Amino acid sequence: MQKAHTSRAHKPLVLAMAIAAIGLTACGGSDNKSSSDTGLKKVFNCTDSSTSGARVICIGSANDLSDAAVQDELIEALAGAETGDTFVLPQGRYAFTSTIDFNGLVDNIPVSNLTFRGAGMEKTIIDASGAASDGFLINNTNNLIFEDFAIYESNNNALKVTKSDGVIMRRMATVWETDYQSTNGAYGLYPVQTSNVLIEDCYVKGSADAGIYVGQSDKIVVRNNIAEKNVAGIEIENSTEADVYGNTATGNTGGILIFDLPIGNGKYGSGVRVFDNNVEANNAPNFAKVGTFAGGVHIVPPGTGVIVLSTSDVEIYNNTIKDHQTTSIAITSYMLPDDKVAAVPDQDVGGEVMSYGDIHPYAEVFMDGWSPFVRNINIHNNTISLAAGLNNPQGALIEDLINGYSAFHSMQPDIASGKTTVPHILYDGVGELLANTANPGGGGSIMQAIAGGINQVAAEVKTNIPGVPDYTDIDLDKFAPYATDGGVCQTNNNIDGMNLFAASVYETTATDSTFDASGLPLSKLEQLAGGNLSIAASIMADPDGVMSCGSGFVGTPATVTFNTQTFGCTADDSENPSCAL
Predict the structure, then answer these.
(1) Does residue 124 sit within a domain?
(2) Are residues 155 and 218 in the same domain?
(3) What is the Cα–Cα distance from 215 to 193, expressed in whole angstroms?
(4) In angstroms, how far is CA 448 from the centroid of its own chain?
(5) Range of 372's domain?
(6) pLDDT by residue (tens digit) across 268-286?
(7) Which of 159, 269, 346, 559 could pair with 568 as two cysteines, CB 3.0-4.6 Å apart?
(8) How much is the pLDDT for 168?
(9) Per residue in 529-550, pLDDT tens?
(10) Exposure of 484 by Cβ count < 10 A (0-12 exposed, 13-18 middle, 19+ buried)?
(11) Which of 333, 328, 324, 329 is nearest to 303 (CA)?
């Protein structure tokens, strides 16, 4: 099989040139005109065939390539789908009015090994603007291939696949042609609750959430894609064993995101490697709608390269991260989007507490195994740079931080000289502080005390209130991760002849001035404003080794298995220079 990655330096350029060709008149073929104004001719070039039990099904015909015929024939073909079918879509731009919806459990008989193939992502375009929801929605089937076509203007998600083992999305495009609009659809390429996922050589633009979003999945390779003008370019959420490499993320609000959200389904992430990507000038306005979670992409500060939120075991290395007006890399616990994760549990079991959710706003997901902390994050050997004049931090979520750092620059010009307003590597540190600070009443850390209190009250709720479901004790060790698992490390991250500006917002180990009189943690900036001048240097640097480690987390390559094929750094890409590091 030909390797997907030929040269990291040239692959994105070739892909970009292909995208630029979208809308140009194709050579030869039928005189049927597209329903759009792109000038892209409709061309039928397919022969139905059947070999070894596998069928090739041509969609449309030489006599009829109308939008309705292509849509209806695809829907009809899927209704009679058999394992191994390949559906060949004709060249042209076709306006669909219905979601292409397929459930692989047909009369409780699984139908799998389906392929959807077009003439090229610049030649076969499905305009899904007439469909009320998703462009394509495929559920409960295994070993799916989508290749060589594009989905435009979906009102929700362009291509969503759920509950499937074995998903390849190759040379696919998802596009919203109007830039930075909250009315654009949410996700472009969107496999969720899947495993063995390969996304390669694709182009995603304009998503009002994430262009490429792999959620609650395992064994993932995302390589050699271009993501531009989305809120989040590429996002790995609540997933394990993922490699993200060789991609270009540019013109997004945030370039690459690795999140663990409090979903409550027992699926939380670890083991993600982000390497050899070009993450450049992701300074777009945030045009996402406010979602279900406090930590959704609507919080992403415009001008952020890479964000890691409340997850574990992540290695970020050998990336080029340049020209971000707010910060290059942000590492944060869930305390930043919602400090209620550290709320004191409600003890009034006989009164107001009638469910686990009444004990604590995050009680149920804590019991489910979610932790709000970042832990085992290793950032090393990246090249970080910022062009002159681009220092202009943005974002409502970190407005207080921006104002505080700006004030610090005015008060301490000698210490702050030559450095950007917000650290190039910004670590909140507050989760580590609460995990490392002993509970004044005894019994572990502050966060262990909170979790233990939830356990205690939950047991009483179960005993005293009929009908409340069983609960699982919170693992208190999850709330003391820095004593056992390691923290956040950064080493050898170069920046254009300047000293790297990497700092935590909060101290990670408590001192006499770390908390106010009511017991709330004080940021370093707040301590400085309160007269603690000794904290000044650590506001702008990492002098005490907050982010230094003798040895940080080192991930292992992800491998995707699809039927008898394998993909990833230890398989078809073993000769790729990216994988040799």
Answers:
(1) yes
(2) no
(3) 6
(4) 29
(5) 194-416+431-498+549-581
(6) 999 999 999 999 999 999 9
(7) 559
(8) 98
(9) 888 888 888 887 765 567 877 6
(10) exposed
(11) 324
